[in-house]
Write a structure and sequence with these properties.
The protein contains nine helices and seven strands. The protein is 48% helix and 15% strand. Bound molecules: NADPH dihydro-nicotinamide-adenine-dinucleotide phosphate.
């Protein structure tokens, strides 16, 4: 897939799935804007993008903060003059059973995962509408589709992203802006690293393809949905989960 002359923003790209998405777009010729809460975690990613020969920009932004999200879009326009693809990937977990789940942990997860995506979508809509073209990819989760004990806040945020995807897809379709969501299953990253071995084993047993997914597996679908090969696809949520949700 060719993304030459395209400008892509990936939130939460200091590591994990977001970093892999950023590198994949760079390899396909895109100019890539990487983002995370602090500048220092982004500099190794910029080094990796430089090594590929990609044009890149790092913007520190906490997506939960409206001003930061607006600044991310502003800096992108100043540097590259356009936004073709926005990938809302930034996300956190603060797991606990409902009765022990604090208001603070509810707010933190909803603010980052759901409001963060809303903030970035809202900020990039005007430049995309002006160009009458754009693709927005929201990284949801299978947990948003099927729920999970101990992840009430995370499941609500990820299900919210799916509802938001469908609604924004309907609002922006007439401007040729496509909006889709991806629901990854169990992907090997820092987020899943701290799971106990026994819990990992049980999870793998529930996956028909009997293995964990990689960040690259998710990045491949992000690229496809952002490309012209997916020009007739909008408002959808596609699982990358080894068959976990069938
Ligand atoms: P990681 O924890 O490895 O990375 C999370 C990224 O999000 C980091 O780059 C982090 O950057 C960034 N981030 C966190 N909070 C904020 C914030 N407030 N503002 C901006 N950036 C932020 O997670 P993964 O790579 O595993 O997950 C990426 C996405 O995929 C998440 O949305 C996650 O929910 C989703 N997902 C992951 C699955 C998995 O199995 N790994 C399964 C299903 C979905 P920094 O800390 O530098 O700010």
């Amino acid at each position: 897939m060719d993304f030459k002359e395209k400008v892509v923003i990936v939130t939460g790209s200091s590591r994990g799935i977001g970093k892999e998405i950023a590198l994949s777009f760079a390899k396909a010729g895109a100019s890539v804007v990487v983002s995370g809460r602090t500048a220092d975690t982004l500099s190794p990613v910029i080094d990796a993008l430089d090594a590929i020969g990609a044009k890149s920009l790092a913007v520190a932004a906490d997506v939960a903060k409206v001003d930061d999200a607006q600044n991310l879009i502003k800096k992108t326009i100043e540097e590259f003059g356009q936004i073709d693809v926005l990938v809302n990937n930034a996300g956190i977990t603060r797991d606990n059973l409902l009765l022990r789940l604090s208001e603070e942990d509810w707010d933190a997860v909803l603010d980052t995962n759901l409001k963060g995506a809303f903030n970035c979508i809202k900020a990039c809509t005007k430049p995309m509408m002006k160009k009458r073209m754009g693709a927005i990819i929201n990284i949801s989760s299978v947990v948003g589709v099927m729920g999970n004990a101990g992840q009430v806040n995370y499941a609500a945020s990820k299900a919210g992203m799916i509802g938001m995807t469908k609604s924004v897809a309907k609002e922006l379709a007439s401007r040729n802006i496509r909006v889709n969501a991806i629901a990854p299953g169990f992907i090997e990253t820092d987020m899943t690293d701290n799971l106990a071995e026994k819990a990992k084993e049980e999870l793998i047993n529930s996956i028909p393809l009997a293995k964990l997914g990689s960040a690259q597996d998710v990045a491949n679908l992000v690229m496809f949905l952002s490309s012209q090969k997916a020009k007739y696809i909008t408002g959808q949520t596609i699982n990358v989960d080894g068959g976990m949700v069938i």
